[in-house]
Design a protein that fits this description.
By secondary structure, this protein is of the alpha+beta class. It contains 10 helices and 26 strands. 24% of the residues lie in helices and 33% in strands. The strands form 5 sheets. Strands 13, 16, 17, 18, 19, 20, 21, 22, 23 and 24 form a 10-stranded antiparallel sheet that branches. Strands 6, 7, 8, 9, 10, 11 and 26 form a 7-stranded mixed sheet that branches. A 5-stranded antiparallel sheet has the order 1-2-3-4-5, with helices on one face.
Length: 492
């Protein structure tokens, strides 16, 4: 360490030297301390109208005027020299070294003729190995893709026969990549022999066709797959969709999740204190690829609207049920056929018999062959000919409710079959005691015909017995799935 006066003395070599160097520095330091906010070139875009701004404007004008004074003037030309135009050999040499030959198609520039040391080739040499890739539009197009890639017809047919032993060509997914290795050919008029072919036939299977001893052989390489479902949890923030997407859930699964929840709870009322719980089918290959499947569980916890929902197949139909085994509530269709009501329910004069009698349903006039749909979920009780009804279908909907559809031209269901609301079960016709194409539509309550237009019907399916036990076991297995590593997070 040293004192400033000592250091100045040593560096300048004496008092005189110290004074000559230190004086400007001291003056600059004093000036900066006194005018700390002084700016030689102030910003003319700020503090407009202040003294600093006017001083900056004056400085700018002064610099512009000083520049104009140094200029030679607009009327005085500036003289220079232009090199003479090159011609002859000098021009050719310069042109050959410029980029202009590229722009003129390579027709200019120097070309060196071959010397006697250069031996011309009698034939173009051929690469001993040719590697390429190709993409399949579909599995059935395998042979065509191989031949277009240079594989001979015989080798392509042999490859197709070998691969068919392991997997059907139609099961190979579109977009599958083929890695091809073609060998040397003895004659250029012949296609190259196939040395090796690799493809991912399935997510869990890789196939390799290789040439050994002049023949092609197939090697199946199984790929281990971990099918542990992916579970994603998180706190619902301002948007359930954005929170789930930010936690790593795919868009399609989130849409299905929200749609499933909406059948039980108002999604808009799920506040920021609630937590979403999503389980998605997942397949992880040992090679690193991941495939995500369908939504397997939808849950909400941490608030008043706790929900646990799981898909379960019952009666040949997959539906979502809550933890108590209760399914979705379904209603009935107002119009099982597209048309107009041509005859109402009640006493009327029969158009064929000519006397008044009870009309146990309503008639819907529609063109012949128009689709007839099931008004609600149910089981087919009758599907066939029935006297004055002509072709008739009767459905049982549970809870003492049933429906009938008469005068049909076609019947698409059979007795004992389960049908869903909106499923086409027949077609409008003119069979039986009918004066024109229409649908006779009836509704029964405990065996008594009622006006279909005056009722509001809904049903909720409830699992019982063995179905309920299996459903709860499946639910417990889903709840035991661990949360996906690195995907659990909260969204404020």
């Amino acid at each position: 360490m040293f004192v400033r006066s000592e250091s100045d003395s040593e560096m300048t070599g004496g008092a005189g030297g110290r004074a000559s160097v230190a004086a400007p520095q001291v003056f600059t330091a004093k000036f900066r301390r006194r005018f700390s906010d002084f700016d030689v070139m102030p910003d003319l875009g700020s503090r407009i109208g202040s003294l600093t701004w006017y001083r900056g404007a004056a400085t700018c004008i002064g610099l512009c005027a000083f520049t104009l004074l140094l200029a030679p003037g607009f009327e005085n030309p500036i003289y220079g020299t232009v090199p003479p135009k090159m011609t002859g050999a000098q021009f050719d040499a310069t042109r050959a070294q410029s980029i202009r030959p590229l722009g003129m198609g390579g027709t200019t520039g120097y070309r060196v003729a071959a010397s006697r040391l250069v031996t011309p080739l009698t034939d173009t040499p051929e690469r001993p190995i040719l590697q390429s890739t190709a993409k399949l539009a579909s599995g059935e197009a395998l042979l065509g893709v191989l031949q277009r890639s240079g594989v001979g017809k015989g080798d392509a047919s042999a490859v197709g026969a070998l691969i068919t032993k392991a997997v059907a060509l139609g099961e190979i997914q579109p977009g599958t990549m083929l890695d091809l290795t073609l060998g040397r050919r003895a004659d250029k008029s012949q296609p190259r022999p196939l040395e090796k072919l690799e493809l991912r036939a399935r997510f869990d299977l890789k196939l390799e066709v290789a040439r050994s001893g002049g023949t092609l052989s197939l090697k199946e390489i199984p790929i281990a797959i971990d099918r542990t479902p992916l579970r994603i949890q998180g706190t619902i923030g301002g948007s359930l969709y954005r929170s789930a997407r930010a936690a790593g859930a795919p868009a399609k699964a989130v849409e299905t999740y929200i749609k499933t929840l909406a059948s039980r709870v108002p999604v808009s009322r799920l506040g920021s204190g609630c937590k979403f719980d999503i389980i998605i089918g997942q397949a992880r290959a040992e090679t690193g690829e991941v495939q995500l499947g369908n939504l397997m569980y939808a849950g909400v916890s941490g608030c008043a609207n706790n929900v646990q929902m799981l898909p379960y197949e019952s009666g040949g139909k997959v539906e979502w049920y809550d933890s108590s085994g209760k399914g979705n509530t379904t209603g009935m269709m107002g119009m099982p056929a597209n048309g107009r009501f041509s005859s109402s329910f009640g006493m009327r004069r029969h158009p064929i018999l000519g006397y008044a009698r009870m009309h146990k349903g309503v008639d819907i006039a529609a063109p012949w062959g128009s689709p007839v749909y099931a008004a609600a979920d149910g089981v087919v009780q009758v599907a066939g000919r029935s006297s004055g009804y002509g072709n008739l279908i009767r459905l049982s909907h549970g809870g003492g409710n049933g429906s009938g559809y008469g005068h049909l031209s076609r019947i698409y269901v059979r007795p004992g079959q389960h049908v869903r609301k909106g499923q086409q079960i027949g077609a409008v016709g003119n069979t039986g005691m009918s004066t024109g194409p229409h649908l006779h539509y009836e509704w029964y309550k405990n065996g008594v015909a009622v006006n279909p237009r005056s009722i509001s019907f809904s049903s909720t399916k409830q699992l019982t017995g063995g179905d309920l036990s299996q459903f709860r076991a499946k639910l417990n297995a889903m709840l035991a799935v661990p949360v996906g590593h690195g995907l659990e997070r909260d969204e404020d």
